[in-house]
Amino acid sequence: MIREMTRADFEAFWPTFSAVIKAQETYAYRSDMTLDEAYQIWCELPAKTYVWQEGDQILGSYYLKANAMGPGDHICNCGYMVSEQARGQGLATKLCQHSQDIARELGFQAMQFNAVVSSNEVAVKLWQKLGFSILGTVPNAYRHGRLGLVDCHIMYKSLA
């Protein structure tokens, strides 16, 4: 069910990706981003990008990349998206667990999320359940599409 993402997979996932960025509730991406721009950010720049596929539907995806260059490249960063129809079914948990396994295989020693929107309580609780800690909170770091300015958490987990 989880495998590396292809261009065709991303194109099939584009309606979900586009809806997420247009909502301006979880990702700090421009709401008018094109498919090609999104593909570059989600699939070409990261070290790996995976999909969760059931039948002919792409229900979720994540990317994995180094969080920094040079002496900071032993810590990775990931981003996850799940289609609206598949939310609440454990996909984000499985994607995050898979990403941690892949990160270890690639030699990463820790995982860091740079900007978890504080109002995304489901994600914050899930990441904490999976062993991530909130290292700090940046006040008013995100312009939420409905709520205005909200805080962002920096979250971290050792993979050692």
UniProtKB/TrEMBL annotation:
Entry-linked InterPro entries: Acyl_CoA_acyltransferase (IPR016181), GNAT_dom (IPR000182), Mito_N-acetyltransferase (IPR052742)
Protein keywords: Transferase
Keyword Cell membrane annotated: no
Annotated ranges, domain N-acetyltransferase: 1-160
Species, as recorded: Marinomonas aquimarina
Keyword Signal annotated: no
Protein name: Acetyltransferase (GNAT) family protein
GO MF terms, alphabetically ordered: acyltransferase activity, transferring groups other than amino-acyl groups
